[in-house]
Design a protein that fits this description.
The chain is elongated, with a radius of gyration of 41 Å. The chain has eleven helices and four strands. The two termini are 29 Å apart. It has a four-stranded antiparallel beta sheet with strand order 1-2-3-4, with no helix packed on it. The protein is an alpha+beta fold.
């Protein structure tokens, strides 16, 4: 949250003066500028849900996460395809040469008897060669492929969880930018009211001094306060422009339409710390992501250990080779070979030069590192939940204390102004009272914003931040001003 420090209040003075006040030219110019800026503000404030709906189609980080999420489903399809049949067709054609010689063979034919020691020879020295083969395979038993399937499914789960975590992060980022801009608007509004009040005070002090009814120190004090407020006003305007640009970049909404509400009434969450810790341990996306990372690392280690296991596949093959052309034994020579097979194929890896065992050791160490990272993530999330819960509890008490302080500072401000009118208080006393009231006004707005953000952070840590949570948070804001 952006914190702005201001020096004086902006409440109109209630004291009736007996002198004719002639406004200072600089005061007139500053008042006109403040009125013009207030007039330029949009008539319809932006709703938090409206901002989130716009961010879903414009936030660059969220759009990048959505694009990355497209790889999750293909990973699951790859995992299923590992156990489906595979079918391949290969064909080739070209110029070929072939020669075979056979000696000591036995030959038999009807009417020719049987002859031993027969020689056979074929020759195709200039021929056309073609080959076609069709192969099909169905895995039956393959531990390595089973581990690979588990790894792909874990990777797909990681993609889904990253997408959901990115969605929650986008919600929280939009809400924080929304609240930062709302506080920046409030800071500028209070400063503009202070400038208007100090301008009136300066004109009154100058008039009293001219009439001899007040010392020159009152004029100097008012002018010093005016200069300080002018500097703070410039800084507040810069902060407002920066916050407006950030929310504009996230939502794509026109900058002129960005006038967020401020939280007004925020109900405490009420759940105990143990409830939040339990829900975070079960549903926090950082923990769930790391759990899937452990599963993927363990599957990778299992895959390399299983690479030494036997594999059994159901196979079917059919192929034919032809070579025809001119040879040594005739001008129309032709060789043709046709084969077909249906059965099972057993593959047993024997030796890979030590690569398999080294890779298995490496992936086992990576699985242990992932397990250690999971424990560290669980500890970190538990600490974050504790801090956010304490922030929510403290925020409730702080808001209540500041609400009481605002009422007290308003009463003190009014009493001080009455005291000035009766001569019991000085201009400096009035300025101090205005300072306290303005600072308390802005501190209350900041405390309410921090409290609401702490509640949204708790929901994110517990894995429950969604549009329903945003809808509930939206009820804490002031109603939009009427056009």
């Amino acid at each position: 949250m952006t914190t702005l420090t201001i020096a004086a209040s902006a409440l109109p003075a209630r004291t009736k003066h007996r002198f004719l006040i002639k406004p200072h030219p600089l005061a007139v110019a500053l008042t006109a500028a403040a009125c013009a800026l207030l007039t330029a503000l949009p008539a319809q404030a932006t709703d938090l849900l409206h901002a989130w709906q716009a961010a879903q189609t414009h936030d660059p980080q969220w759009l990048a996460a959505q694009a990355a999420h497209g790889s999750a489903q293909p990973l699951r399809q790859q995992a299923k395809a590992l156990w489906r049949p595979s079918l391949g067709l290969s064909a080739s054609a070209g110029r070929g040469y072939g020669e075979t010689q056979m000696q000591g063979a036995q030959f038999s034919a009807p009417g020719m008897g049987t002859n031993n020691g027969v020689d056979f020879g074929t020759s195709v020295t200039h021929g056309n060669a073609t080959q076609i083969a069709l192969q099909a395979s169905q895995p039956l038993y393959n531990p390595e492929r089973r581990a690979q399937q588990q790894q792909l499914n874990a990777s797909a789960d990681i993609g889904d969880l990253q997408w959901q975590a990115a969605r929650q992060a986008a919600m929280l980022r939009t809400a924080q930018q929304y609240l930062d801009l709302a506080v920046a608007h409030e800071a500028l509004r209070v400063l503009e009211q202070q400038l208007a009040a100090i301008n009136r005070t300066l004109a009154e002090a100058q008039e009293r001094f001219d009439l001899g009814a007040a010392p020159i120190t009152a004029v100097h004090e008012a002018r010093a306060q005016q200069a300080q407020l002018q500097a703070q006003h410039l800084a507040a305007q810069t902060t407002l422009d920066v916050q407006r640009r950030q929310l504009h970049d996230t939502t794509g909404l026109p900058a002129a339409d960005l006038a967020p509400h401020l939280p007004v009434t925020i109900a405490p969450l009420g759940q105990a710390l143990a409830w939040w810790q339990e829900h975070a341990a079960a549903h926090n996306f950082s923990i769930r992501l790391q759990q899937r990372a452990v599963e993927a690392a363990q599957a990778e280690a299992s895959k390399h250990r299983a690479s030494a296991a036997p594999k059994l596949d159901l196979v079917a093959q059919a192929q034919q080779q032809r070579l025809s052309g001119r040879g040594d034994f005739g001008r129309h020579a032709r060789n043709k070979d046709t084969q077909a097979l249906v059965g099972v194929q057993l593959t047993v890896p024997l030796y890979t030069g030590g690569y398999r065992s080294a890779k298995a050791d490496e992936t086992q160490a990576q699985a242990q590192a992932a397990q250690a990272q999971l424990a560290a993530t669980q500890t970190l999330v538990a600490q974050q939940v504790h801090a956010a819960w304490l922030g929510e509890q403290t925020g409730v008490q702080q808001v209540r204390a500041l609400e009481a302080a605002l009422q007290a500072s308003a009463a003190r401000q009014e009493a001080t102004r009455i005291g000035q009118a009766t001569g019991e208080r000085t201009v400096l006393d009035v300025l101090h009272a205005d300072n306290d009231h303005a600072a308390t006004t802005l501190a209350l707005a900041q405390a309410r914003s921090r409290l609401l953000l702490a509640q949204l952070q708790l929901a994110q840590l517990a894995g429950t931040l969604d549009e329903a949570a945003l809808q509930q948070a939206n009820q804490a804001f002031a109603q939009a001003p009427k056009p």
